[in-house]
Amino acid sequence: MASTFHVYFGPEALERQIRLRRIEPRDCIAALREGLDDFLAMPTHPVFVGIFYAIAGIALVGLTSFANALHLVFPFAAGFALVGPFFAVGLYEMSRRREAGLPASWRDSFAVFRSPALPSIVALGVGLLVIFVIWIGAAQVLYGWLYGGKEGWLFGPRPPGALIPFLGDVLTTGRGWTLIVVGCLIGFCFAALALCLSVVSFPLMLDRDVGLVPAVVASLRTARDNPGPVALWGLIVAAALVLGSLPLFIGLAVVMPVLGHATWRLYRRAIERDPAHEVPIAGPASAEEVTKNPVLRFVLIFVDLFQFLRRRKEWSPEQSNRDPKTGAASEKADGS
Fold first, then answer.
1. E strands, the chain, where?
2. Which of 270-274, 277-281, 317-321, 330-334 has the least mean pLDDT?
3. 3-state SS class at 331
4. Which of 151, 104, 54 has its CA nearest to residue 284?
């Protein structure tokens, strides 16, 4: 069990110094290009991780529609990016392995469950989740203020009953445009806060186990010292998420992995390396580690099951009749 001091400040808080670099807008473009290269080098694995985002987005729309909460569909979809850096930690691990010249598969993305920085990573993830919940609450209050009258902001207005009439009201009335403009301004503030907190913090904790506080401070310093490039990076992320969300969120299956890999590459450009304090890349999990960690055991069982189903789907009856050496189809001798 990690100590509280380790979670917040890392095991060597007084010895490790985090040195930042100045980055330029071209570094953001280069990081995005390198992230795309990582995605193309590991195409099937990041897509599988990204599918979770696409499924979550589709489920989000369905659940909010059935719950008569159509006015929260956009806040949920937009706010989903606030917690995205936390769920992309596995992609950082894959880029880290490829960068070191090691083979990387989507199974390796689950190595983060054995990282000594996992408690710190989870702590920051919970913090982003709190920001997400506050954002949804603010969106609900704003809708109640505009559509619920004097008491609507407190007790909640009547939710929209159908999508088309609600969109018509939002796009053609004064209160609808107020909802759009004020909502986007509030969302921008939450997004800027999440970006400043997480632009390099998750990769830094995974790479060097510096603890929550030093990682967040380094991320805030990066945003302070490089306001233009960090703002450009936020714009790139927002634009990519919008494009990925347009075809019923299916595009997120590609956009999210690319952004995840690119975030790692941007981290490498923004923070000077310190090989003496980098956490060694973990090898395959031992039987003892799997036995002691029930979460890791469940994850590996799921991974093995998925691999088995994928291989079974790729297998065809004709393959069983092929000679293992030549690959040619074998013919049984006719006894007649």
1. none
2. 330-334
3. coil
4. 104
